[in-house]
Amino acid sequence: MPRKAENQVNDVCLPGDPFPSIRAGYKTNLNYSLDAAAGRYLVVANLVNASEACFDDAVSAIKSHRAFFNDTDISFFGFLDAESTWRQKAQDSLPGIRWLFFSRDADVALHRIPPFCWILVDPTLRVLTRAPLQFHRSFLSSLALLPPPAMHGGSVIDPPVLIVPRIFEPDFCAELIRHYDSDGGQLSGFMREVAGRTVVQHDLNYKRRRDVIVGEGPLRDATRARISRRLAPQISRAFQFDATRIERYLIAAYDGDEGGWFRAHRDNTTKGTAHRKFAVSINLNADYDGGELRFPEYGNRTYRPPLGGGCVFSCSLLHEAISVRRGRRYAFLPFLYDEASAAIRKENAAFLGLKGLGDIEHF
Fold this sequence. Notes:
The chain has helices at 2-10, 52-64, 136-141, 170-183, 218-239, 339-347; strands spanning 23-26, 29-33, 41-46, 74-81, 97-102, 117-121, 127-132, 162-164, 186-187, 190-194, 197-201, 207-208, 210-213, 245-247, 250-255, 261-265, 278-283, 288-290, 293-294, 302-303, 310-314, 319-321, 324-332, 335-337, 361-362. Strands 8, 9, 13, 14, 15, 17, 18, 21, 23, 24 and 25 form an eleven-stranded antiparallel β-sheet that branches. It has a five-stranded mixed β-sheet with strand order 5-4-3-6-7, with no helix packed on it. A five-stranded antiparallel β-sheet has the order 12-16-22-19-20, with no helix packed on it. It is elongated and about 70 Å long. 20% of the residues lie in helices and 30% in strands. With 363 residues, it is of the alpha+beta class. 35% of the residues are buried. It has two domains: 2-151, Glutaredoxin (3-Layer(aba) Sandwich), CATH 3.40.30.10; 162-362, Sandwich (Jelly Rolls). The chain contains six helices and 25 strands.
């Protein structure tokens, strides 16, 4: 009996286990991360190296249960090897049905997923259940019994975020806004890993924001002093993390006229951003609608700090800034880290497709 229990623990993708972090080719992204799909149930069919007949059976099963897959509650992802002779038969059907393709030298994470099986993954990317492909009828029919994604744990689960009011006083917020308006802002990008380097990319379907970097001088010194005195002690108390360094002194604006947003993402998924520990979002104004923060893995609740207050959260959490519907949301958006992370940043500097290391100041 003990031997059987030990074997179960050493098995992969058991209920309660984290689903492996997968990257694979997708039709619009050759380095697609399944992590970005968190916040809903995922049905995964691992068909890598499966026969064409097995593939046809799986596709037929999915089509007969098409109504479940809406990208709001449940999404389907089929895994195939990129060299499959019938690859052209694997057609996406949006919303809800997507196919990912793995090369023969695929990420080792793929080898941690049982072959020829169905896997049901919860909104926080943990395994709920799994079944051999031939059991598609009972497996897919059971999707009707799932509770709403936000209730997958039996009750609403709040994300581990910290709201800290009164970091910046109103007059200082106004000063930062004036500084932004005097510049006008530049189109903001996001970080991606391309050919082994961390580079900035732009896609208005993914992110619509304009930024201004506060250069060296009294205004930058004043922001650093306030974060050091008023925010860092609260982070230490809540998370037992001593933030000692700050990356970027960035004022951002999400404009309602542009439908300003930033789709769901994590802030530390590339070599050039791996050092980031906590993200901070300090609101500089209140006269706007929309623009709240949401953490899809933990349901649909949104977060909006008060004027001068901030929301602090781990850079590993999936999060998004929802569209601003009216007005313009101004925010100060630094990343915080510590001395151990500074060593990681220095080590990974060679992978940055940017000049230098940016802001590496101590508090």
